[in-house]
């Protein structure tokens, strides 16, 4: 999974016009986590979720689901089921990578639904930076024009999110705010409020 995540990070870097190894180096000492999920059947499946609507606070999520299915993403104002495939992974952009890309990539709103008859299982790999790594987009001089058309004003774009560490965001989601659809916005507001109250 580490190797797969490195390939994905290279592709993301190329798409953003930075050196293809830029994000690989950023995450090389990271603290990625693999987890197994188990969703038992539920008699009232229409009244509950396996996991409610949320975006992942981490950087990338690589998921393989069994053939039962249950993952849904919110797109074009409706929930859409992601059909399971034995030969494919699902890759979600998380809030941390949204900040690393200065909002060019958006974190994916998704949920897991249960059913009445069958257990659903999935394996998930969360790509995270090191706890004390400063999360900020690459500076303009790190960007290349190869294979990417960029306007001059995009090179000088304003920062959408302030600097923070992965540990900052973890502590916020664990102590102050459940990870959901507005986690990053609320985290940024919390960061700004804390800076204003500090002596």
Could you give the topology of this structure?
Layout: H1 2-15, H2 22-26, E1 33-39, E2 51-54, E3 60-65, E4 71-75, E5 78-81, E6 90-93, H3 95-100, E7 110-112, E8 120-127, E9 134-135, H4 152-155, E10 164-165, H5 166-175, H6 183-197
Antiparallel strand pairs: 1-8, 2-7, 3-6, 3-8, 4-5, 4-7, 9-10
Organism: Erythranthe guttata
InterPro entries: IPNS-like_FE2OG_OXY, IPNS-like_sf, Iron_ascorbate_oxido_reductase, Oxoglu/Fe-dep_dioxygenase_dom
Protein name: Fe2OG dioxygenase domain-containing protein
Could you explain how this protein is built, in words?
This protein is α+β, with helices and mostly antiparallel strands and 199 residues long. The chain has one domain: B-lactam Antibiotic, Isopenicillin N Synthase, Chain (Jelly Rolls), CATH 2.60.120.330. It has helices at 2-15, 22-26, 95-100, 152-155, 166-175, 183-197; strands at 33-39, 51-54, 60-65, 71-75, 78-81, 90-93, 110-112, 120-127, 134-135, 164-165. The strands form three sheets. It has a four-stranded antiparallel β-sheet with strand order 1-8-3-6. Strands 2-7-4-5 form a four-stranded antiparallel β-sheet, with no helix packed on it. Strands 9-10 form a two-stranded antiparallel ribbon. The relative contact order is 0.21.
């Amino acid at each position: 999974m580490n190797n797969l995540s490195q390939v994905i990070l290279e592709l993301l870097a190329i798409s953003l016009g930075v050196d293809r190894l830029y994000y690989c180096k950023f995450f090389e000492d990271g603290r990625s986590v693999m987890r197994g999920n188990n969703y038992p059947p539920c008699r009232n499946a229409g009244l509950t979720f396996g996991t409610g609507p949320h975006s992942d606070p981490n950087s990338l999520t690589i998921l393989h689901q069994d053939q039962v299915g249950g993952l849904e993403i919110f797109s074009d104002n409706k929930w859409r089921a992601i059909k399971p495939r034995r030969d494919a992974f699902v890759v979600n952009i998380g809030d941390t990578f949204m900040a690393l890309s200065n909002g060019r990539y958006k974190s994916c709103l998704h949920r897991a639904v249960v059913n009445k008859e069958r257990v659903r299982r999935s394996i998930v790999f969360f790509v995270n930076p090191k706890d004390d790594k400063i999360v900020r987009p690459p500076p303009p001089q790190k960007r290349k024009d190869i294979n990417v058309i960029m306007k001059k004003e995009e090179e000088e774009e304003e920062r959408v999110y302030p600097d923070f560490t992965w540990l900052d965001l973890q502590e916020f989601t664990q102590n102050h705010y459940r990870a959901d659809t507005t986690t990053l916005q609320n985290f940024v507001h919390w960061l700004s409020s804390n800076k204003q109250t500090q002596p």
